[in-house]
Design brief:
globular, 14 helices, two-stranded antiparallel sheet, disordered N terminus, mainly alpha
Amino acid sequence: MQQSNAHKTSRPSASELDWGMILILILLMGIGLMSLYLAIANNGKDVSPIRPLIVQLFYWVIGIVAIAFIMRFDASQLWRIAPILYGLSLFLLVAVLILYSRELKAQAGARSWFAFGPITFQPSEVVKPAFILMLAKIVTNHNREYPTHTVHSDWLLIGKMLGCFLPIALLIGLQPDFGTLLVFVAILGGVIIVSGITWRILGPALGAIAAFATGVIYLVTSATGRNILGALGFQAYQFARIDAWLHPGQDTSADGYQIYQNLKAIGSGELFGSGFGNLKVYVPVRESDMIFSVMGETFGLIGGAFLILLYFLLIYRMIQATFKSHNAFYAYISTGVIMMILFHVFENVGMNIGLLPLTGIPLPFISQGGSALISNMLGVGLVMSMSYQQESRTFNEDSRFNV
């Protein structure tokens, strides 16, 4: 497919930025830093929250720079670098299995982090945007080659997407990091649904997934089933997390202690919360996966609902940017980013309020940690580049991207 020579000459300017999305990010940054301060200052230990706050603010600066950098890439440039970034991602996932932090492996039970002195880096987080780009390129290219969807062409597309997904799934499974793997599954599922695949395939597939999920639930709730899952590689701590989810008040001294305390903290906030700095319920490692309880206890149901509203508005702005782009490649990128953030929010809030089992998935832009924050900022940057490049009209028009 030949590219047109029509270049759009106007230069990008601040007026072409998505200021609505930027405002939401600023609010999330403020809530995240405030929640981190409260979580560490009230963790029952004599630890100053200043240093963690400075480190987290440093990661925010890196994320902002990453957004500014990635917004300079138009669709054709992202198209060209997608395979390179995907290859680098596989390299990082292989490297971390060899050069992982032994200390963090002993603490968390997974070979998921590099450590450079006091700085840690989880490569599977930054693999997510690269996976999204590669998946979007595969679907766009396939739909250009097969403009009419048939059962045969759709199965071929599914095979291509699985070929992109399975190496990453295998390498993350070897760490092992089941929670992160679920995020990649959610991204893949979202892109499959919007890729145009016929419901003659999607319908039975979704039915099979529902049946599989029902079977897994049955297996984890029976002694015989747990023996089968144990033989397949499930660990004792995973069963313990499920037990704590199903019966949060049954054992509050061991594996169920964290989720039980978390539920107490959120419940104690009631409608309007206990007020700033009045955290009275101790929750272990609250600054990480359980940070939603800080909002729940401090600002109550109103504060938690406001945070969820911000996520809704962020996703709404992303959808708006997608429709304005009239660009198939961008649409699949946006779908992947939305699914990444949406699944993180759904799973983290769900496990914080007891609706879902604990999986160790952070709350986007709020939980402590640099790798996940930078990954989410890169995702937002990819979506912001749609409206930025569209409005500034600096990219080359390429018919393979248009819808």
